[in-house]
User: Which sequence fits this backbone?
C-alpha cells in the first residue's frame, strides 16, 4: 500500500497539467467549473466542443485499450488525469456517459460491428449518449420495466414502445441506451434486452421535466414505435439484465473521480465565500466546512481503494457499494452548508427570478442526488442484503 | 394553567383552515408567486374584510378585535400550512407589533386603525450584513434640530417593496451594538425612500430592499426614547419570531400530511411505499418534530399573551421565542427535506408542492436568525448571566 | 389556552414549597437529586423513609380522589407539585410505580376489596411495587407473554410460573404486578390476566442483572409455583391486555413530570460543571447545552398539552404517543453531553473501580432508555401505525 | 499509487487476527480488565517474543523489524477489533514514535532496542486541564547549569502507572502555547517521579497520573532542541492519532459484525430482527462508517510511511491524522451506540461485550482530541492560513 506515484506517472502528470494550462483557456474560460450535477445541461455546445478539444489532445477515453483508441491508461494515470483536471477546474464532461458507461459496456458485451460503429464517435467527442433506465411506476425497480421491444420481421428492426423518465441530457444526446422487455410474457429480470437507440427519429419524443430549480436537466423520453436496427441490441434478447448490471459496475469506477472534482470546485467556492463574508469566523460554520473537507477527502480515498482493488478483482466490493449513499448524502449536506455560508444572501436571486447562482442551483438539485439512481433507502437495502447478507425485503 | 385551545380558539382555527383550503390552493399560490407584488390583492381584501385577521390582536381601542396572541398563532399556523401568500406577516406580526410595543399613543391611534382595515406595513432593520442582531442595524440617523436625517440601505425586508407603512430602525452615527438605536414610523411614500423587489429563492414570501437618501423625519415619527430602542426592537423581533415559528409549524405539519398521503398511494416493488419500515420510521420522526414544534409554538403564544398583559418579562419572551424559532426552523426544514425524499423523483419536480415547502422552510429558517443563532442566544442566558430561566 | 395559574393555585405552590423547605433537609439532605434513572436502586431506605415523610405531609398520591386518601389535586396542582419538587431537588420517588401505575389501575379496574387492601399502604409509603411485563424472548412483544397463571382449585389460589426480566426495583419491592397467561391455549392479546403477586414468598426468586454500569437496577424475576390469592387478579381472566393497556395510559400522564424534574437536576449539574471547567466557552458545547435546554423545555410543554387534554378526553393522543421516543432520545444525548462537558475527566473514576459518579452513571444508563419499555424502533412503529395510520409490520 | 494491502501486509493482518482471536477472548479481556496493571503479562510476552509486533516499525538499526506504518496500522486494527489489553499502544505508538521523531542518536540506540525486546514505555504531556493542544503542557522545567529541574503533574497518561520508560513533555517556566516546550526521556524509576493508577470508565485501557517533585535530569535526557519541541511533539501525537484511529476502525468493524451476528439469531414478533428494514438500514449505515473509516485510516497509514520517508511534511501528516481521528472517533462511537441499541436489553448488561466496545469508543474518542477538536484544527488549515492542502 502506497500513495507515491512512479517517476513515469509524475511525467504523465506534467503532460496533462501543461496541456490543460495551454488549452483550457480562451473560449473555454467560461466553462471552467461548470456542467456539474444540476448544471449538466448548461453550456452544452461549449462543452461538446471541449470534448473534441480533449480528443485532439488524446485526452478522451484514456482508460480504453489502445485498440479502441484509448491510451490504455493505468488506474494511476486515470487518477492523475482526474486530479489535474480538477486542479484546472475542467468542466463537467459532456461525454461522460459515452466514455464511462456505453464504451466499457460495448467493449465488454458488444460485437465487433457495434464497437466499430459507436466507439470512434464517442472517442472523438462527436456522439453523445444518455441512459434509459427508470420508468414511471418503476422508479428504482429495474425488474419492473414495462417498455417493450418487438422485432419487426418486415423491416428487420427492433420496435420500441414505452416511456423512460429522469433521463438527463436527453435533449443534448444523439443516442439513448434503453432497457426494454423483449419477451412480453416475462417478468422481473428475465426477458430484458439492452438497446442502442438513436434519439433523432419520429418515434422518440423528449419532454423536459421542470425541476424545483426552474430548469430541466431531467427529461421524460417517449418511445412510440421508435426503432433501432437489428444490430443495435447488445448481447442477445434476454441478456439485458446482465448487461445493465455490468454497466452499473463500470459506473462506480473511475468516473467517480470526475464527479469528485466538481465537488471540490464547489467546496472551494464555499470556502472563498466564507472567507469573504466573514462566516469563516463562525465556529459552527468552521466545523461544517471541516466536516465537508473530511467527507470529500474520504470519498476520494474510498475511490482509490475501489480502483486499486479492481485490478485484481472485478466484483463489486464493500467500499464500492457504499459509494452512492455516501456521496449523495455528503453532497446534500454540502448544499445546505453553501446556503448557510451565504446566510441571508442565500435567498437572493441576483439576476432576477428565477435565475439561481451556481451554489443555489447545487443546493436545490442536491436533493435529487439522494433519489435518482436508486434512493438512499434502496442503497441501504442493497448494502444490508448484498454486503451484510441480511434477509431481503419481501415483495408485495 | 390550561394548555389547550378554548372552544372559541378552536373555532378560529377551523374557520381559518376552511377558508385557506379553499382560497390558498396550489394554483392560487403559484399565481401569486408569479407576480412582483407576491400576493393576490383580492384574496388580501377578503382576508381583511371578511376574516378581519389583520386586526385580530390589535386592541379594540385601535380598531382591532382585541383578541390575543394565541388566536393569532392559531391563524398563522394555518396560513403556513397553506403557504398563504399575503402581506399579513409583515403588516401584523412585524409592523403592528412594533407599534404596540414601541409606538406613542398618537402613533398607535394613527397607524393601527389603518392596519386594522387592511393597509399594509412592514419593519425594516437589517442592512447588508445579513445578520439579525443589533449590529445588523446599519442605517444611520443624524439629529438636526428637531428633525432626523436618515441614510443607508435595508435588505431582506418582508414586503419591503410594497408595504404602505414602514417602521424603520436606524442608529446614531458612530454607535454600535445595542447602543444608539431608534425606531421611526413613516408612510412608505415619504420622499427620500427608494424601494425595490429583491427576488428570492422562496417565491411565496417577498423581500425588498430600501434605500434612504436624506430621508428627513420630524420627531413625531420617533417611536420610544431616541437612541434607546434596541430593547424594544428585540421584543418586537421576538414576537415576530413566534409568529414565523407558527407558520413553520403549519408548513411542517403539511409536509407530513402530504407525504403520508402520497406514499400511501404509491406502489414500489409491489408494495405501498408506506408499508416499508424505514419509510414509516421517517414519518414517525416527522410527527415527533411536528408535535414538539407545536408545543413550543403554543407555549410561546401563551408567553406572547403574557407579555402583552405584562405578566412575562422580556427574558421570558426571548426564551420562548428562541426555543420556538430554533426548534420549528429545524423541524420544518427536516420535514420538508424528508418529504422530498419520500416523494422520490416527483419530489424534485416543480409540479408537486413539496418543493415549495422546502423553499419556504429555508427562507423562514434564515429569517430572524437560524437555529444556531437562537441556541447561542439561549446559551448566553444559561451560561453567561445570572438570570434564572 | 393560558399558562397563568389561579391565585388558589399559587397558594398551593407556596404550601408545597414551604413544606419541602422545612422537610427535605437534615437526614434527607443526602438524597437530594438522587434516585433517578440508573440510580433508582440507590439510597432505597432513605427514599422509602422519605415517602412516609411525604405521606405525613399529605403529599403522596395527591392526584388520587379524596375517597382513596388523595387530595384529588387538579392537573394544575399536580404540575405545581412537580415543579416545586424539582426546584427543591426532591429525590426520585421510590413509590412511583405504586402511586402512578398500580393505584390508578386499581381505581379504574380493581374491585373494592383490592382497593381497600392495596391503596392505603401505597398511600402511606409502606408498600412498594415493581412491574412484571417483559420476558426473555418476548422483549417488547407483550402479546408473546409465556408466564402462566393456573387456578389451583385445592388451595383456591393462582399459581404463577415463568420468568420476567428487566424488572427494576424488584429487590426493593413488596409486590409485583404480573401479566400472565390464564388460558394456556391462547395466543397474542387474548387469554391474559393481570395479577398482584407478593415478592416475599418461596416461589419468587429475584436475580439482579449486572449492567454496564457495574450496578444492578434491573432484575430477572423467576416464578416457580409462586402464588397469589384468588382475589389478586384485576378484572377477569382474559382481561389482562385491557388492564395493561389502561395502565400504559396512566404511565404517560403526570408521572412524566416527575421524570423531568430529575432531568432538570442533571442538566443543571452539567451547566454548573461547564461554567466551572471552562467548557461553557466552547462554542459547540454552548450549542449543545442550549439544545438540551430547548429539548427539556419542550418535553415539559408536551406534557402540559397531554395533561390539559386528558381532562376532557381519555384517549392517548399524538403528543402522548411521541413521549417515550422523545424523552429517551433526549436523555441519551444528555448523557453524551455530560461526558463531553467533563472532557478528559469524564473517563476518571474518582472513587476507584468501578464507582461511577452520578453523570457517568446517567451517561451509561441512558443507553438503556431507548431500549426498555419498548425500543425506539417499536415506538416509531407505533407512531406510524396508530397515529399516522400507516400499514402494520407483518408478523413472521 | 496502490491503495491496497500487499500480500505481505495481508499476511501480517491475517496472522494478527488469528492470534488475537485465540488470545484476546472476551474472558481474557475481562481478566485483564480486573487487574491494576491492566494487561496479562504472559500475553504481552507472547506478543513481544512470538509476534514481535512491538518492533514492527522500529528500524533494524535499532533492533526492530524495519517495516512500515501500514503494517503497524494493519496490526493495530486487529488489536482494536479484539479489544486487546496491552502496553503496546503506549510503548510503540507514543514512546517509540517519540524517540524516532525527536530522539538523539544516542537516545535511539539506548531506548529503541529496549522497546523492541518488550520494555514498556509511554509519553506524558497533558496536565490537569484535560486539553490536548500545546497549552495542556503544564509541567515546567528550570534550567540549572547543565541540568533541568522538572515539577508538576501529568494526567491521562496511557499506562502511565506501569510503563518502564517515560517520554516527558515540559515547558520553560513563564512560557505558554507552542513556545518553550521540551521533551525528555528517562527510566520510570528515576527518583522524583511518583506514579498512580487513574481508574477509568473504559477498563480495557489504563491511564495513570504522574507527579514530578524536583525531578532532576541531565542534558542527555533532552530530546531535540531545548524549548523548541512542540512541532515535533505535534508530529508524535499525529502518529499516535493515526494509531488510535486504526484501533477504532477495528472496534467499529467488530461492533457491526457482532451486532449482525446477534440480530440474525434473535427473533421478535415472529421474525428475525435482522429482517426488519429499520434494523437493516442501521446496519447499512454502520457499514458506511466502517468502510469510510477504513479508507481514512489506511490513507493516514500511507502518509505515516511518507512522513518517515520524508516524502510528506508535517501539514500533510496533520491533515491525514485529523481526518482519520475525527472520522473514526465518531464512527466508532456511532457504531457502538447503535450496536447496543440493536442488541436490545442484553446490550446494556455487563455479560455481552458490546458495552466494552461502547466504553472503548468513548475513551478513544476523547483521547488526543475528539472530532470537534480535529475539525477546528482542519478549519484553521482551510480557512485561516495560506497553506494548500
Assistant:
Amino acid at each position: 500500500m502506497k500513495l507515491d506515484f512512479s517517476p513515469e506517472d509524475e511525467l504523465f502528470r506534467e503532460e496533462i497539467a501543461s496541456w490543460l494550462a495551454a488549452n483550457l483557456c480562451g473560449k473555454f474560460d467560461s466553462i471552467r467549473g461548470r456542467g456539474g450535477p444540476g448544471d449538466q445541461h448548461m453550456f452544452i455546445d461549449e462543452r461538446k466542443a471541449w470534448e473534441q478539444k480533449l480528443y485532439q489532445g488524446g485526452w478522451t477515453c484514456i482508460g480504453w485499450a489502445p485498440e479502441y483508441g484509448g491510451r490504455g491508461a493505468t488506474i494511476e494515470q486515470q487518477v492523475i488525469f482526474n486530479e489535474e483536471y480538477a486542479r484546472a477546474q475542467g468542466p463537467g464532461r459532456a461525454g461522460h456517459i459515452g466514455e464511462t458507461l456505453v464504451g466499457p459496456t460495448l467493449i465488454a458485451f458488444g460485437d465487433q460491428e457495434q464497437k466499430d460503429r459507436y466507439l470512434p464517435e464517442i472517442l472523438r467527442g462527436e456522439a453523445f449518449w444518455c441512459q434509459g433506465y427508470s420508468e414511471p411506476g418503476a422508479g428504482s425497480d429495474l425488474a419492473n420495466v414495462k417498455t417493450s421491444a418487438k422485432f419487426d420481421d418486415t423491416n428487420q428492426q427492433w420496435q420500441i414502445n414505452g416511456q423512460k423518465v429522469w433521463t438527463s441530457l436527453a435533449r443534448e444526446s444523439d443516442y439513448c441506451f434503453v432497457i426494454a422487455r423483449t419477451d412480453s410474457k416475462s417478468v422481473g429480470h428475465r426477458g430484458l434486452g439492452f438497446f442502442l437507440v438513436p434519439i433523432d427519429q419520429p418515434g422518440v419524443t423528449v419532454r423536459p421535466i421542470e425541476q424545483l430549480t426552474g430548469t430541466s436537466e431531467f427529461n421524460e423520453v417517449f418511445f412510440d414505435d421508435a426503432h433501432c436496427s437489428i444490430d443495435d441490441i447488445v448481447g442477445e434478447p434476454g441478456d439485458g439484465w446482465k448487461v445493465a448490471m455490468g454497466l452499473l459496475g463500470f459506473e462506480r469506477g473511475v468516473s467517480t473521480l470526475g464527479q469528485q472534482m466538481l465537488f471540490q470546485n464547489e467546496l472551494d467556492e464555499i470556502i472563498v465565500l466564507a472567507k469573504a463574508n466573514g462566516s469563516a469566523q463562525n465556529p459552527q460554520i468552521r466545523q461544517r466546512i471541516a466536516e465537508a473537507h473530511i467527507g470529500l477527502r474520504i470519498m476520494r480515498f474510498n475511490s482509490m481503494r475501489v480502483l486499486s482493488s479492481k485490478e485484481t478483482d472485478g466484483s463489486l466490493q464493500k467500499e464500492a457499494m457504499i459509494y452512492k449513499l455516501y456521496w449523495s448524502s455528503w453532497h446534500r449536506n454540502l448544499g445546505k452548508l453553501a446556503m448557510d455560508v451565504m446566510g441571508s444572501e442565500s435567498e437572493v436571486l441576483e439576476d432576477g427570478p428565477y435565475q439561481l447562482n451556481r451554489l443555489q442551483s447545487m443546493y436545490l438539485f442536491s436533493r435529487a442526488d439522494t433519489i435518482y439512481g436508486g434512493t438512499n433507502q434502496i442503497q441501504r437495502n442493497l448494502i444490508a442484503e448484498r454486503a451484510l447478507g441480511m434477509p431481503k425485503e419481501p415483495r408485495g | 394553567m390550561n394548555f389547550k385551545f378554548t372552544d372559541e380558539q378552536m373555532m378560529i382555527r377551523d374557520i381559518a383552515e376552511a377558508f385557506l383550503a379553499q382560497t390558498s390552493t396550489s394554483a392560487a399560490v403559484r399565481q401569486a408567486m408569479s407576480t412582483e407584488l407576491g400576493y393576490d390583492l383580492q384574496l388580501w381584501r377578503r382576508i381583511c374584510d371578511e376574516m378581519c385577521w389583520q386586526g385580530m390582536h390589535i386592541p379594540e381601542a385601535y380598531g382591532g378585535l382585541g383578541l390575543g396572541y394565541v388566536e393569532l398563532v392559531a391563524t398563522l399556523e394555518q396560513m403556513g400550512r397553506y403557504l398563504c401568500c399575503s402581506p399579513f406577516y409583515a403588516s401584523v406580526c412585524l409592523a403592528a407589533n412594533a407599534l404596540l410595543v414601541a409606538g406613542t399613543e398618537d402613533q398607535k391611534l394613527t397607524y393601527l386603525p389603518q392596519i386594522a382595515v387592511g393597509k399594509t406595513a412592514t419593519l425594516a432593520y437589517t442592512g447588508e450584513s445579513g445578520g439579525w442582531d443589533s449590529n445588523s442595524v446599519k442605517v444611520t440617523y443624524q439629529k438636526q434640530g428637531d428633525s432626523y436625517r436618515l441614510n443607508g440601505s435595508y435588505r431582506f425586508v418582508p414586503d419591503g417593496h410594497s408595504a404602505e407603512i414602514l417602521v424603520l430602525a436606524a442608529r446614531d452615527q458612530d454607535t454600535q451594538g445595542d447602543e444608539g438605536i431608534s425606531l421611526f414610523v413613516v408612510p412608505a411614500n415619504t420622499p427620500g425612500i427608494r424601494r425595490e423587489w429583491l427576488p428570492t429563492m422562496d417565491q411565496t414570501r417577498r423581500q425588498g430592499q430600501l434605500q434612504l437618501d436624506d430621508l428627513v423625519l420630524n420627531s413625531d415619527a420617533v417611536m420610544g426614547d431616541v437612541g434607546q430602542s434596541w430593547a424594544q426592537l428585540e421584543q418586537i423581533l421576538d414576537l415576530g419570531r413566534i409568529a414565523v415559528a407558527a407558520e413553520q409549524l403549519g408548513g411542517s405539519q403539511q409536509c407530513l400530511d402530504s407525504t403520508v398521503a402520497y406514499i400511501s398511494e404509491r406502489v414500489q416493488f409491489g408494495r405501498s411505499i408506506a408499508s416499508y419500515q424505514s419509510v414509516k420510521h421517517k414519518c414517525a420522526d416527522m410527527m415527533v418534530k411536528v408535535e414538539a414544534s407545536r408545543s413550543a409554538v403554543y407555549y410561546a403564544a401563551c408567553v406572547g399573551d403574557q407579555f402583552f398583559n405584562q405578566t412575562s418579562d422580556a427574558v421570558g419572551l426571548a426564551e420562548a421565542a428562541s426555543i420556538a424559532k430554533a426548534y420549528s426552523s429545524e423541524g420544518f426544514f427536516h420535514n420538508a427535506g424528508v418529504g422530498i425524499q419520500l416523494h422520490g423523483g416527483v419530489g424534485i419536480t416543480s409540479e408537486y408542492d413539496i418543493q415549495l415547502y422546502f423553499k419556504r422552510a429555508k427562507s423562514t429558517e434564515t429569517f430572524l436568525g437560524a437555529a444556531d443563532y437562537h441556541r447561542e442566544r439561549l446559551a448566553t442566558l444559561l451560561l453567561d448571566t445570572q438570570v434564572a430561566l
Remarks:
- The domain at 7-94 of chain C is CATH 1.10.540 (Butyryl-Coa Dehydrogenase, subunit A; domain 1).
